[in-house]
Amino acid sequence: MEEYLNIKAADGSNRRLEMSGDKVSLGRSHENDLSYPDDISLSRKHMVLERTEDRWYVRDLGSKNGTRVNDTLIVDRFRIQAGDRITAGHLVLSLEGAGGPSTAGDIIWDDAPLGTGDTIVASLEGVLASDSSSPGKGERADSPAPFTNEAVSALIRAGRELAQDRPLNELFDLILDLSIHAVKAERGVLMTFEDGELVPRGFHGEGFRVSKAVRDKVINEKASILIRDVTADDAFKARVSLLGHNIRTVIAVPLQTDEKVIGLVYVDSSSMARRFAANDLNLLTVLANVAAIRIEHERLAEVEQNERIMFRDLEQAAEIQSSLLPLKAPTIAGLDLAGYNAACKTVGGDYYDYLEFGDNQVGLILGDVAGKGMPAALMMTGLQARVEVMADKDVTPAKTVARLDRHISTKCPQNRFITLFYCVVDSASGDMSFCNAGHNPAILVRADGNYELLTRSGTVLGILPELGYEDSSLNLAAGDMVVLYSDGVTEAVKLGTEDEFGEDRLRDLVVQHRNQSAEAIIQHVNDALQDWTQGAPPDDDITMLVARKV
After folding, report:
1. Which entry of 199, 418, 430, 523 is 20 to 30 Å from 19 by CA?
2. Rounded CA gap, 81 and 434, in Å?
3. What is the 3-state secondary structure (H, E, C) of 492-518?
4. Handedness of CA 218, 189, 198, 256 (dihedral sign)
5. DSSP class of residue 458?
6. pLDDT tens digits, residue range 291-329?
7. 325-352 burial, b if ≥16 CB within 10 A, otherwise e?
8. Minimal CA–CA distance to 419: which of 464, 383, 368?
9. Spatial separation of the C-alpha atoms in residues 247 and 230, rounded to whole Å
10. Spatial contact of 213 and 113, defined as CB atoms under 8 Å apart
């Protein structure tokens, strides 16, 4: 059967390539079989398609943006079949006519009940504990004859093969091949539970019809079932046509670990010369147990690998985000400035910055994106970029905030919004104009210890555009200061209670230490937060910005 690779580019163009060889490489470099130098989302050597024993695999070559199969990032060589969607950069690829021994076919769940005739039922515990003779017709197989040399060889081979490092998708085909070879079956299918549903993961043959009663007994009772002769079984005698392919003998066993059943293996044969026997049932029961443990081990390994990749990506995102925040406060004559940010996760949604406009003008901004983690961090990055473009000394804080709101409202998801406090201070005169978009009220502390909460506020950003914002103004004399903060400070919870740190405690603290430097004030707040939470990880991002007139 001829095989083709269909390639769809970002511009909608399509390309169809006959797969006559055993290897096709793809990337930006002209050294690849398929070169797309203009797709900057591709790496120079991005991925390769490889044929092994009439099966196609895709392998990522350590690309920057990864390779995905059916929207899942692959971390190792991955088996693909006809219809699978491969995404590399802006390209979408699919194989047409890809086949091989694991030809996929539909499974029809048949209503035939489990008969009482030529049927043997076994359990893993019984198989492992037994040492007596094989049961007769209609009896349980919990006490079979010892494994034959051939069966022992099959188990040894299975152990050797399964011990090798293989990705999960290759394991399914291997386990099915081992099962079919061990009992000399003609066909087989391996299924595992995915989101509570049995999903075929490996096929050898097609047109499977499996009794629901057999399936349910295997899954619910951890039972291994052998129907030695379908035509002699009471339940199936009148329903042979439902089994298709003239099937005469059937085995179904659970893929079970010590804790649970994760799927099943079903094999059958049309040969009357070699019907499955009790020893075949016992052999497949043990083999499936070993295979299930190996599957669970590999699943855990893949989860850990994906977590490592995710953690690495988060670390890189945190480095990028950290580079967007100030490394240190600028030196501004007439002002003592300090800021602090700590994300409760690897990345966060809080943002602060100093905007040096010249002519003694400096902008101070602190924002908080609703939510935590990567979504909030992405919105924070967008906010930071817009502030860089829109903020200017000749544009009042209210006009700047209104412009930000108009842009953010058109792109902000429904469940997201941003609170923001923005002020511009004249470091020489101490004049300060400010605008609050739904953020915590800044604390104004006078040199004599009097204080004021700057409570005047407009709506949050990203919800209702065009409502308008208003400027407010005040003057900072020598020794006065203004403290901006996110709700991660005031809503920090005392360990073992529901008591919050609160605005009153924060206000009293900054008033008490008002004669110290901006950096020292932030340190006092951090120390108090640590004492309050007893060092417990914060539930929200913590950000502060302090400006003292000197």
Report:
1. 199
2. 61
3. CECCCCCCECCHHHHHHHHHHCCCCCH
4. positive
5. B
6. 999 999 888 887 777 777 777 776 777 777 677 788 899
7. beeebeebebbbbbbbbebbbbbbbbbb
8. 368
9. 7
10. yes
User: Average of pLDDT values for 255-267?
Assistant: 93
Encoding tokens for residue 226? 């052998």
> What pLDDT, on the 0 to 100 scale, is given for residue 112?
66
* Strands of the sheet with 261-269, listed across from one edge: 119-123, 223-227, 249-256, 261-269, 187-194, 197-204
Angle ∠(454,456,457) on CA atoms, nearest 5: 115
Distance (Å) of CA 455 to CA 40, 109, 435, 542: 48, 67, 10, 20
The encoded tokens of residue 402 equal 């209104």
Burial class (CB in 10 A: 0-12, 13-18, 19+), 160: exposed
Helix (H, G, I), strand (E, B) or coil at 303: helix
The percentage of residues in the chain with a pLDDT greater than 70, rounded to a whole number, is 89
Amino acid identity, position 169: N
* Cβ proximity of 351 and 384 under 8 Å: yes
Which has the closest alpha carbon to 175: 163, 460, 120?
A: 163
User: Is there a contact between 338 and 329 (Cβ–Cβ < 8 Å)?
Assistant: yes
Nearest CA to 276 out of 445, 119, 491 is that of 119
Beta sheet of 23-27, edge-to-edge order: 34-35, 23-27, 47-52, 55-60, 78-80
Question: Helix and strand tally (H, E) in the chain?
Answer: 11, 29
Structure token digits, residue 74? 């692959």
From the number of C-beta atoms within 10 Å of its C-beta (0-12, 13-18, 19+), residue 187 rates as: buried
Q: How many CA atoms lie within 13 A of 374 on its CB side?
A: 7
Dist CA 298 CA 305 (whole Å): 10
Residue 25 has a pLDDT of 96
What's the pLDDT score for residue 414?
67
pLDDT, tens only, 444-474: 999 999 999 999 999 999 887 667 899 999 9
Q: Are 433 and 423 in contact (CB under 8 A)?
A: yes
Give yes or no for a contact between 483 and 521, defined as CB atoms under 8 angstroms apart. yes
State the DSSP code for 260.
Answer: -
Contact 253, 227 (CB under 8 A): no
Q: What is the pLDDT of residue 234?
A: 59
Tell me the mean pLDDT in the region 476-500: 93
Report the alpha-carbon distance of residue 278 to residue 290 in Å, rounded: 19
Residue appearing with tokens 């006519």: 97
